[in-house]
Every structure is written in structure tokens, then in C-alpha cells.
Design goal:
Among the domains are: about 80 residues, no CATH class; about 80 residues, no CATH class; about 140 residues. It is built from 19 helices and 21 strands. Strands 9, 11, 12, 17, 18, 19 and 20 form a seven-stranded antiparallel β-sheet that branches. Strands 10, 13, 14, 15, 16 and 21 form a six-stranded antiparallel β-sheet that branches. A four-stranded mixed β-sheet has the order 6-5-7-8, with helices on both faces. A hairpin with a 2-residue loop joins β13 and β14. The longest helix is centred in the middle third of the chain and has 45 residues. The N and C termini lie far apart (about 90 Å).
Amino acid sequence: MRRRTWWIAVASIALAGAIAVWVLEARTFPYHSVNHDEGVYLQQAAMLLDGQLFVRPPVEDVFRPWFFVEDGDRLYPKYAPVPAALFALGELLGGYRIALLGIAAVILALVALVVDEVFDRGSGIVAAATVLCSPLFLIEAAVFLPYAPTAMFNLTFAYGYLRADRTEDRRWAGVAGAAIGLAFFSRPYTAVLFAAPFVAHACWTLSRDSRRALPRQATTAALGLAGVGLALAYNATVTGSPLLFPYEAFAPLDGLGFGRRRLLGPGIEYTVELALRSNALVLSEFVTGWIAGGILGATVAAVGFGVAVRRGLSPRESILAGQVLTIAVGNVYFWGNVNLLGDVERAGDGLIATHGPYYHFDLLLPFAAFAAVGALALVAAARRTAERNLTPQAARATLVAALLVSALAVGGVTAANVDEKIDRNAAVTDTYERVYEPLEDEPSERSVVFLPTPYGDWLAHPFQALRNDPDFDGRTVYAMDERPFAVVDEYPDRSLYRFAYRGTWAPHEGSPCAARLQPVDHVAGSTVGLNATVGVPSAAESVTVTLTTDQGSATYVLNNASDRTSLRLIATDGSVQLHGTDIEATESLPIGDRDDVVLDVFVDRGLGGSFSYRLEVPIRTDGGTVRALTPRVERCSGIRDCGGEAASIPEQSPNGVFVRTDIVVEE
């Protein structure tokens, strides 16, 4: 293959990869994926663009993004800034997503270059095409996660090293060192596993002829160690210790090794047996569902390895073979692979179902390289067999037919695997689209939006599309609904909204079913009142109202509830009282300085038809002044449904079921 033709082929594959990633990320991940780490990297990218390594929220406890470490009055991400810097570069060029296209194209070009260095040009083209058709590459290249960016640096290192090994050009040795240094800064353990066979090869070259090999190997090592030093310097800056990585500061047990491992929550006992079992499952998924051709592609790669061994595996070819061993075995020592699986006993659970075995992303290189060798060897063997046993015309026809059938078989498996992965992610996106719909037309004025926290006290988990500017002063500011009055005091001139959804947070299963953006009023005075009107269907047998504060509760049975039942809550400094149909409250319930007063209205419609309205009113008292916010409103089919996942959505409510509220200052 002529060099010019070869470069055109490489450029065409790289361009095809960029286009495929562009279509995929635009259609399948417009709100990002179910892996909420994307929001962390994009938040970090915005910080880098502002020249910040830390953010300092104006109010404690309500602005902490997912996977950010608390350090006094400042926060920093648990991840190294290298992938985020690449995404930030994309933003400088016109948009964060531009970075994804560039990374995808560079990865494919580098695969062709590396395999060309190890085998030949034809194998390089086939290998690049193989990576392009692998679901793992397509999915990971289309999301803002670190695996594709780190692989780009690893592949740059591989090409620079191999080029320097062939030409003895120390400039390429320098490129290799700088690239592996950045890869280490990005994901240290990933870089070590990828580079280990190259290190073994470097030692071998030094043992054979140290005088010739030492200058280039020393150059690579020096610049690689510079990258390590850069990573340690970053650690010292953000964590205070060069040997304390941010991810360890966030979760000390979320690292390498066996024993008790956890990120958040109780964690697991990561035994050798569990490690071997979970990694076997991950590798099985890699082979059967996340590479081009699935098991057929893996078989062709095995044939290619056998062909390379039969020809006499060269030291450079041994590097790629060694990567299969170091990456596969090395990942056994990392508990993240069992965490990736979710429930080990249930197939299709965990992030591996939508994102694949991303800790093994670098296995795509040796797989594609040996698959290319195997494919070309099988084609050559078929051609020789046909030419030996058939006439030239019949041989050509037979060969074309065999190639067509093989391509259809491999292509069919690949297409089915890609479609399955895209469909799984698209189902999540369909849910996101429904949930984010109320936010499509954000308030035109400067505003604060209080967000729910289904996974605990985090922002951007799961709502990673809703991120604050690093200075927390964008047109829309997002806050947790934990200290609403402190947020109101910090942003006194902004409009207030509350975002809420209806249904358990389970995007894979099409839930939540709806969401709303509720305007929130803030009132303050010596006495404040909440006027509420609730719909009571005609079939209701009874209505029971319960008023609850942190100090106590009171229950009232409404015997004459109508289809439009009115309730009135009066709060003064230190107490709250309920009035309304059939309610003759003579006593008040005490409230503290900071209280969420809850009003539950249970509508009894018999077995299977009963439901409750829950109105949760944030109230704060301060020296004779009472402050209150528009209540959080839920409609619950059972008592366990209440608590943040049963928002009352007017357009989703049955006939005769409604809630209307108005919070006012009493004269």
C-alpha cells in the first residue's frame, strides 16, 4: 500500500470515527450518561478555564458537587485535571463536545500508526477500523469520562516509543516520555499497566546494547518521571501531601488491594476469589459484547496471535501480547471491576451494561492488532486455497463470496452489539428528556433553583447537566434544598424555584414519569400564613389532616370535607396553628428556630384508592420575625412514597385531585 494511499485511509477512518462520535453524543447523550462522573470532569474543566483548582461555595452544605472533596471552606475534585483540561480545550475551540471528536479521531489514527510500527500498514488500517467498530470505543469516546483521553496519551506513548526504537530518534523518545507522564497524571494505575510491557522491552534493549539504547530510553524515562512529578506536585497543592492523591482523600478505601473496599456506604470485602470471579465476568463481557465482532472478533484475534507466534513473535510484537497479560491481571487488584458489575449475581446490572468494561479500554489495542493480523492471514489463506483448487475466475468468485459472508457475519454481530448498547443508553436519555423538560426554557431572570437529592447531599448526582459556574454567580444557581433560607439570604435579588420529579429515580426503567419547576415565594413578618386548597374526589370516605412539627403533631378528622377543601396554616414566633373545614384548633404546636412544618392530608377512598397530599413548609423564626417559603408539595399513593419522589404534577393528576397554595404575610 502506497504511503499516500495509506494516509488517506487513516484520515478517512479517523474522520468516520469523529462523525460517529458526534452523532452518538448528540443523539444518545444530550444530557450526559447515567455515569455521573461526567459532570465532575465538566465542572473541573470550567474551573480550569477560570484558572481555579478549588471552588469556594458562598453557603456551606448546599453547593457540594458530586465527587468533590471538602477542605475547609473550599472544594476540589477527586480526579486529576488532565482529562478536564482536554475538555476545556474543546470549549475554547467552540464547545466541550468538540474535544470528544478530536480525541476519537486521534485514537483511531494512533492505533493505525502503532500497529503499522509493530506489523505493517495493512494491519494498521484493519486495526483502526476494528477499534472504530467496537462498542466500547464508540460509547466511551462519546462521553466526558477519562478512559478515552488517557488511552490517547497511552497510544501516543506507544507510537513515540516504537518510532524511537526503530529510528533511534530522541525527539520521538521525548514524545513518548511526555505522553506517558501525562497518562500517569491522568490515571496512574492505567498508565502503569499499559506501559509495563514497554518497560520490559526497554530493559531488554538496554541489556543488548546499552550504548545505543541508553540515550533514547533515558529521555523517555526523564520526561515520564517529569509527568509523575507533576502529578505529585498537584497532589501537594490540593491535598497538602505529594503522596496523597485526591481520590484517596475523598475515599481512602477506594483504591488498589484486597480487603475492605468502599467508595461510599458500607462497601464490600474484596477477596481474591471475588476479584477473580468479577474480573472473569468483566473480560467475558469485553469479549462477547464490547469488541468488533464479539466472540467472532475475539476468535479472529486468537488466530492472529497464533499466526504471529508461528512466524516467530518479535520483541515489539511481544509488547502487545504482554499488554493482554498486564491489563487483565493488573485489574484483578482493583476492586472497581466488581463495583462496575453492580450486582454480580444479576446479568446486565451496573455501569458495565451501559458503558462497558471501561477499565479494560486499553485492551482494544492488542485485540485490534492481532485481529487485523488474523483477518489478513485468513484472507491470504483463503486466496491461496482457492487459487490452488479452482480456476482463476472461480477462485475470485469464491473468494469474494467467502469475504462477503464473513463480513456479513462479523458485521451482523457488531451491529447487534452496538444497537443493544445504544438502546440501553437511549432508554436512559428518554427518561432524562422527560425529566429535564421543565428546564428546557430556563427562567430568563437571574434565579436560584433548589434541586432534589435522591443519592444524598450532592449536586450533579444525578442532575449533572445542571452545574454551577465556578464562582456560583451564573444566571441560574443550583442549590440543594437543605438550607433554603441561607441561600435566599445569599441571593436576595434572585427569583426562586424548586425542581421536583414524580417517581422513583430509576432512569433505566423509565422513571421518573414527570417533573416540574415550581416557583417559590419567600415571605417574612410577625405572622405568616399558608392558604391551601386540596381536591377531594366525590368517592372519598373520609379525610384526615395531620400537622407535624419537630416538637409534636396534631390530627383532625374532617367529617364535612367538600371537593374543594380549604386549610389555613398560621405561623407566629414559636408556634403554628391550623384552621379549616371542621377544624377548630384551640391549641398551637411549638416550632423551633428552624423547622419544616408538615401538613398531611389523607384521603380515604377504600383499599387501593387512598392517597395523601403532603405539604412541607420551610419555616424559620428569628427574633419575632417569621420567614416561610412556598411548600414542597407531594401526592403520595402510600406513606412510603412521600419523601421527595412523589411531587404533585398538576398535568399528571387525575380529575378532582389538585393542590393550590398561597403563602402570605398576615396583617
